[in-house]
Specification:
Elements (H helix, E strand, L loop, with lengths): L1 E4 L13 H10 L6 E2 L8 E5 L8 H8 L10 E5 L9 E4 L12 E3 L9 H4 L9 E7 L5 H10 L5 E5 L8 H12 L1 E7 L7 H8 L3 E5 L16 E2 L8 H8 L3 H16 L4 H15 L5 H9 L1 H6 L4 H15 L1
C-alpha cells in the first residue's frame, strides 16, 4: 500500500497540526506492506486528519473544489474526531453513530487526547465509593441528559451535578469531576452531542464501570465490552435505578475489568498502536473505490437521510429551531 500523508499545506481541509497522523506514521510505516510516497498520483491511499468542525451537505462541495482532493477523493481515508461525524470519507472515527456506521468502511476508535489531564494523574487512587452512581455535565447537549436528571436527581444514593461549562473547565471543576467518578460505584455515561463521550473512556481509566446510555454508541473493537460496561436503553431511563441495584454487587469486578481493558488497549502507552492497527486492518479489508462509486454513496438518499440532509429534514429542523427561539 502506497500512502500519501496529507498535511495542511496540501489541503485546507486537513487539521493544522495533524498530530494524530504524525504519531501514527512511524508505526504505520513499520508494516511490510506499507510505504510512503511523496506524490498523491502515485498513492493508493491518501490519509488525512480532518479539521474538527461541524460538516453539513456543503462539505461535499468543499471536497470537490479542493485542489488536492478533487481528483483523488475516492482514495482518501480519514482520522475524524468530529462530534457530529458524517462518514463521508472511509477511515477512523471517534464519534460516528451506529445509525450510519458500516464496518466495511469505518472503524471506531477512542479519543486520543482528553481535556481533563487529572484523570490520568489520579487513576491509581482507590477511594471507597459513597454513591451508587454519579454524573456531572452539561444537560443542553442531549435530551437524554435532562431525562436522566429528572429520573434520578431525587435519589440520595445517586449524585448528579449540572454545569454550564463546556471544555473550558477550571482546575477545581476538573478535580470535582474526577472525584465524583471515583466516589461512585457506577459512572453514568449518557449521550451528548455525540453518542460517545470522554466520560466512557475516563471512567475505564479510573477503574469504574461505565453505564452507557447512548443507543447510537459504537464500541471500538478490541475489548470485550460486555465484560466491564453496562448498556442501558435511552427510552427506559426511568428504570435505570432498579437496573443499577441489580448490578450493584458486581461493581468492583466490572470496574477492575474496565481499568484492565483500558490499560491493555487505550492507555497513553497503547493508543497509538491501537489507532495504527485499526487503520491498517481497515485498509487491508477495503477494496479500491472509484470516484463514481464514492460520489454515488455520498449523494444517495440513505446517506442524506442518515445525516438529516434531505430538504424535508432541513425544513423541519429549521422550523423546530425557530419554534424553540420564539
Amino acid at each position: 500500500m502506497k500512502i500519501f500523508f496529507i498535511e495542511r499545506s496540501h489541503s485546507e481541509l486537513a487539521d493544522v497540526d495533524s498530530l494524530i497522523i504524525q504519531s501514527m506514521k512511524p508505526l504505520l510505516l513499520c508494516f511490510p506492506d506499507v510505504e510512503e510516497v511523496k506524490s498523491p498520483t502515485d498513492a493508493d491511499i491518501l490519509l488525512i486528519q480532518e479539521n474538527n468542525s461541524f460538516k453539513n451537505f456543503n462539505y461535499i462541495t468543499s471536497i470537490l473544489e479542493d485542489p488536492l482532493l478533487c481528483n483523488c477523493y475516492h482514495k482518501v481515508y480519514t482520522i475524524n474526531t468530529d462530534d457530529c461525524a458524517t462518514g463521508l470519507f472511509r477511515g477512523l472515527y471517534t464519534s460516528l453513530p451506529k445509525s450510519r456506521f458500516n464496518s466495511n468502511l469505518y472503524a471506531a476508535v477512542p479519543y486520543l487526547k482528553y481535556p481533563n489531564e487529572l484523570v490520568f494523574l489520579n487513576n491509581k487512587q482507590e477511594i471507597e465509593p459513597n454513591y451508587l452512581a454519579s454524573w456531572r455535565g452539561n444537560t443542553k447537549s442531549n435530551s437524554v441528559r435532562s431525562k436522566l436528571f429528572r429520573a434520578l436527581s431525587s435519589i440520595p444514593s445517586i449524585h448528579l451535578e449540572k454545569t454550564d461549562s463546556w471544555l473550558n473547565h477550571s482546575f477545581e471543576e476538573k478535580q470535582t469531576y474526577v472525584e465524583l467518578i471515583q466516589q461512585a460505584k457506577f459512572s453514568l455515561c449518557p449521550a451528548g452531542w455525540a453518542p460517545v463521550s470522554f466520560r466512557i473512556y475516563e471512567s475505564m481509566a479510573l477503574g469504574k464501570c461505565p453505564v452507557i446510555i447512548a443507543d447510537n454508541f459504537v464500541p471500538p473493537k478490541g475489548p470485550n465490552w460486555s465484560d466491564f460496561a453496562l448498556f442501558f436503553p435511552e427510552k427506559h431511563i426511568a428504570n435505570l435505578y432498579s437496573f443499577l441495584l441489580q448490578h450493584e454487587e458486581s461493581h468492583q469486578i466490572l470496574g477492575s475489568k474496565a481499568q484492565e481493558e483500558w490499560n491493555r488497549f487505550f492507555s497513553p502507552e497503547k493508543i497509538n498502536e491501537f489507532y495504527t492497527q485499526s487503520l491498517h486492518s481497515l485498509l487491508v479489508l477495503n477494496s479500491a473505490s472509484s470516484q463514481e462509486a464514492e460520489l454515488k454513496r455520498w449523494r444517495s438518499f440513505n446517506f442524506y437521510w442518515s445525516n438529516n440532509w434531505t430538504v424535508p429534514q432541513r425544513v423541519f429542523n429549521k422550523i423546530r429551531k425557530l419554534t424553540r427561539i420564539n
